[in-house]
Design brief:
2 helices, mainly alpha
C-alpha cells in the first residue's frame, strides 16, 4: 500500500504526511517524479488509443 499512497500524494489525491522531512532536494525529486508519472500515464493513454481504439473503427 505504500506505493499507491505515494502515487496518490504525487497526484495531489491524498494529503502528504506532515511528519515527513521536507527540504529542497526532496521537493525537487518529488516534482520530477510527478512529471515522469504524468508523462507515463499520457503515453499509456496514447498507446491504448493507437493500438486498441483506432483499429476498432477501421
Amino acid at each position: 500500500m505504500g506505493i499507491l499512497r505515494q502515487i496518490a500524494e504525487y497526484l495531489y489525491i491524498k494529503k502528504r504526511d506532515p511528519n515527513a522531512p521536507r527540504n529542497i532536494n526532496i521537493k525537487l525529486m518529488h516534482g520530477m517524479n510527478r512529471i515522469s508519472l504524468l508523462m507515463f500515464i499520457v503515453a499509456l493513454l496514447i498507446m491504448l488509443f493507437k493500438f486498441v481504439i483506432l483499429p476498432m473503427f477501421r
